[in-house]
Write a structure and sequence with these properties.
mainly alpha; 8 helices; hpI Integrase, Chain A; single chain
């Protein structure tokens, strides 16, 4: 899919891995401003959330590498992602995402599935529903419960190691492949 994110869809090449790496809702991502990216503490402060409560998400190295050049030289109140066509923040990215999916021959994938992938990876890494709820900004713990896996005692560490290896392979620039979870 990322191979399809060129030309008019170039912005998706950073937006997709950011969404998977942070669990950001599309609205949170499109309204993200430079001041919300705290590189000193490696945090992203989502302040325009569904619940109207700020949410902090740690930057992993990939997200940090994505944000650094996007924020460099901009003022704190500038938006991170700007349309090259208008110079203004994106209103939506639906057309570009849908056409990238079509060209990549991926059916049924919607933007929110990228957020679900973040939750799934947290669950696979052994996070409990309370931590997942906090990281994803869920008001109801039942929403986060779908990502929790029932693992045998002691399996959490093995899952984390497996997930780290897979994450490094799956999201490397060499492979050009991103695995995502799709809710049914």
């Amino acid at each position: 899919m990322l191979a399809q994110c060129t030309g008019k869809r170039k912005h998706l090449a950073t937006m997709i891995p950011f969404a998977i790496g942070t669990g950001a809702r599309k609205s949170e991502q499109l309204t993200l401003k430079v001041r919300q990216c705290d590189f000193f503490r490696n945090l992203i402060i989502f302040d325009k959330t569904k619940s109207n409560k700020p949410r902090l998400v740690e930057m992993n190295s990939e997200v940090r590498e994505i944000l650094m050049p996007l924020c460099k030289g901009k003022r704190p109140d500038d938006y991170v992602w700007l349309s090259p066509k208008t110079g203004k923040p994106f209103d939506d990215i639906k057309k570009a995402f849908v056409s990238a999916c079509e060209d990549a021959e991926i059916e049924g994938l919607v933007w929110h599935d990228l957020r679900a992938t973040y939750g799934t990876r947290l669950g696979e890494a052994g996070f409990n529903a309370y931590d997942i709820a906090k990281l994803m900004g869920h008001a109801n713990i039942a929403t986060s419960q779908r990502y929790v896996r029932n693992l045998p005692v002691g399996a959490g560490e093995a899952v984390m190691l497996k997930n780290q290896r897979r994450h490094n392979t799956v999201t490397s620039e060499d492979s050009g492949t991103l695995m995502v979870a799709v809710n049914s």
